[in-house]
Write a structure and sequence with these properties.
This protein is α/β, with parallel strands linked by helices and about 325 residues long. It contains 11 helices and 13 strands. The strands form 4 sheets. Strands 3-2-1-4-5-6-11 form a 7-stranded parallel beta sheet, with helices on both faces. The longest helix is centred in the N-terminal third of the chain and has 18 residues. It is globular, with a radius of gyration of 20 Å.
């Protein structure tokens, strides 16, 4: 396996849930990391993730050609992590997943950047009924057109402390009398640990043989939505029934709750997210994955208890559930 010598890498979107972990992993591999952010003053916690001076923050609006070009000046590699799960104002799927991704790819190519790592998602499909999934596919195509040797990483749902996946359900288990089992809970996921995704990003940035390839990142086990909710209820010690919610009803609910985005709030569910739940989110048969990047997948049960304890009555001093949970 040949490799690039770590130099300067620019990370777009490095303050997010995955981005902060990726910055740490890249620094650990010896890269000098330039984190390009809309507001660097809001992410001072990133600098101590490396040696003194190894991680620098710079202001960058990814909708600006000039800002992107400046952020990439002198960079040997780039990582694009900017994304949204719901649209709000100018932060649309098209603007961030397609146009900004293409802008970074074009600038990286014109400045001679050796490696571009683009973060997409499992389920990216130009023919999908989901606007999110379509935009991810369009973004991949735009990146490939401008930078054919780009590495594309498609993670399944990502878990870890601070995630919007298990934490959302655990918070609901505390506040709601029941948990909604959308579509009967049959949708399948392959949850992947955020630390593994970060390590995959660092490996993709440094491995010469990764160029031009697409990797699908999933954990070691496939879980149904019902499995996930059952596990959360068990791990948090909350006795909550699972209430079946048909897809058509969930779409109607999503249409109401997404109004919150118009006033700057994060909607608990959108119609587009319901559409995504109508399809499985698992690694495709034969697709290159974590192991091809030299990363061993971490199981959800090994990590989730370290942060779900806060939702138990009694917190960390509450009695932990006994026995091993096995998804159906």
């Amino acid at each position: 396996m040949s490799a690039f010598s770590p130099g300067l890498v620019t990370v777009f979107g490095g303050s997010g849930f995955i981005g902060a972990q990726a910055v740490r992993a890249l620094a650990r591999d010896g890269w000098r990391v330039r984190v390009a952010l809309r507001n660097p003053n809001l992410a001072p916690e990133l600098r101590p993730q490396g040696e003194v001076g190894q991680i620098q923050l710079t202001r960058c609006d990814v909708t600006s050609d000039a800002d992107v070009a400046q952020a990439l000046k002198g960079a040997d590699a780039a990582v694009y992590l900017v994304g949204v799960l719901h649209e709000a104002g100018k932060r649309t799927f098209k603007a961030l997943h397609v146009e900004a991704a293409a802008r970074v790819a074009r600038a990286a190519a014109s400045q001679g950047v050796r490696r571009l790592v683009h973060i997409s998602a499992i389920g990216a499909d130009a023919g999908s009924a989901s606007a999110y999934a379509r935009s991810k596919a369009e973004g991949e195509a735009a990146v490939r057109a401008a930078f054919p040797d780009a590495v594309i990483l498609r993670p399944s749902v990502v878990f870890g402390a601070g995630d919007g996946f298990l934490n959302r359900f655990a918070d609901l288990a505390v506040k709601a009398p029941a948990l909604p089992l959308i579509g009967g809970g049959e949708t399948r996921f392959q949850p992947v640990y955020v630390g593994d995704v970060a390590q995959a990003i660092a490996r993709a940035a440094g491995r010469a043989d990764a160029g031009g390839r697409t990797y699908e990142l999933g954990g070691p086990a496939v879980w149904s939505m019902k499995d996930v909710l059952t596990y959360v209820v068990r791990e948090t010690g909350r006795d909550r029934p699972l209430a079946p919610l048909p897809f058509f009803a969930a779409r109607a609910l999503g249409g109401l709750t997404q109004i919150a985005a118009a006033v700057g709030m994060t909607p608990p569910l959108t119609q587009d997210q319901v559409i995504l739940l109508e399809s499985d989110n698992v690694v495709s048969d034969g697709a290159p994955g974590l192991s091809d990047l030299g990363v061993e997948a971490t199981g959800m049960e090994a990590i989730a208890p370290s942060y779900l304890w806060r939702y138990r009555k009694g917190g960390q001093f509450a009695e932990a559930p006994a026995g091993e949970f096995l998804p159906a």
